[in-house]
From TrEMBL:
It holds the Pfam family His_kinase. It comes from the Bacteria. One of its GO terms (molecular function) is phosphorelay sensor kinase activity. This is Histidine kinase. It comes from Hymenobacter cyanobacteriorum.
Length: 339
């Protein structure tokens, strides 16, 4: 059992906490030898009663409070505090335990009963706070794990979506290219091979390099251009002085993919602009595309929602900025990352 597994076991966690408390009490008692035995006896009884009260209170929380029976919980908790204080006072009386104050006088009931009630109340409050703080922390980490799993699943679906639709269209385009311009087939096949290799490699890695991502985009754009008519102008530039910087895979594809998905108008001129620039600390992708006059928005897919979620996970806060501008004739997106 490793360290993290140890703290997943409730009995082990609670046992460690009580051992630390007992050790602290023993240490404090040793600092006052004149009254140490009296304090040890008192604290031993105190710990026994507090432990019983704390676990009984846990049962009340589960049975009443967490089910919304707040009145029953309040009455039961008050009864537990009073009973715990009475039990602690009675055990101290039976064991002839008292606390000696600074003047040497023995302090007994009724003062000890009030002190006992206070001790029980404080212990229950602290134990309850600790219980729900730990539960909140555990819930937070579980939500993070679920979110990471959801993003991983969405990314896998996005890859599958790219593979299925894009590969089908590309094969059709390659068939047409083999008939119309067979001399261009080798380059197109190399681009397709590069895409497939990227898909395979990125599925095994948490990050890729900026240069690898740019090469993927270049291959993707090159294959998409096979199906475009002469009335479509495509601009793609990549200025990357630091191509070895790490980047989350397929992070830029949704914006590029949308350009080709929404910009094609057979009856008019189309413009697609994709510019990738890099500085010492950042990466910027600017995309823009003309919008056909009869454009009808397609049903929302996984692309942009998954992109926003992945940006929040991998580049949280001020490490990313995604701005989108749309008019009747043009759509532009600007993504800035701090690497």
């Amino acid at each position: 059992m490793n360290f993290s597994q140890f703290f997943r076991h409730r009995a082990a966690r609670h046992g460690l906490v009580w051992l630390l408390i007992i050790g602290f009490i023993a240490l404090m008692a040793s600092l006052d030898p004149a009254n140490s035995w009296e304090k040890v006896r008192y604290n031993a009884v105190l710990l026994a009663v507090l432990a019983a009260a704390i676990y009984a209170h846990y049962a009340l929380l589960t049975r009443f409070f967490e089910r919304g029976h707040y009145g029953a919980y309040a009455v039961s908790a008050l009864g537990l505090v009073l009973a715990g204080g009475a039990l602690l006072d009675a055990l101290n009386h039976v064991a002839h335990i008292a606390i000696i104050n600074q003047t040497g006088q023995r302090i007994t009931t009724p003062y000890l009963y009030g002190q006992a009630v206070g001790n029980v109340t404080l212990a229950l409050v602290l134990a309850t706070v600790a219980r729900y703080v730990r539960r909140g922390i555990t819930s937070h980490f579980q939500m993070q794990q679920l979110r990471a799993l959801q993003l991983e699943t969405e990314l896998s679906l996005l890859k599958a979506q790219v593979n299925q639709h894009f590969l089908f269209n590309t094969l059709n385009n390659l068939y047409g290219l083999s008939l119309a311009a067979p001399d261009q087939m080798p380059e197109a096949l190399l681009q397709l091979a590069g895409l497939m290799r990227y898909q395979l490699d990125s599925s095994r890695q948490a990050t890729v390099t900026v240069g690898t991502e740019a090469e993927y985009l270049a291959n993707y754009i090159g294959l998409e251009k096979l199906r475009l008519r002469e009335n479509t102008t495509v601009e793609f530039t990549a200025d990357l002085p630091h191509p070895d910087r790490p980047l989350a895979p397929l992070l830029l594809l949704p914006l590029v993919e949308n350009c080709f998905k929404h910009a094609i108008d057979p009856s008019g001129d189309n413009v697609i602009r994709i510019h990738l620039t890099q500085t010492n600390t950042g990466l910027t992708l600017r995309t823009g595309n003309s919008i056909p006059a009869q454009f009808r928005p397609a049903p929302s897919g996984l692309g942009l929602p998954t992109l926003r979620a992945r940006l929040a996970q991998f580049y949280p806060g001020n490490r990313h900025r995604l701005a989108v501008e749309a008019s009747d004739t043009f759509y532009a997106a600007n993504l800035q990352l701090v690497l």
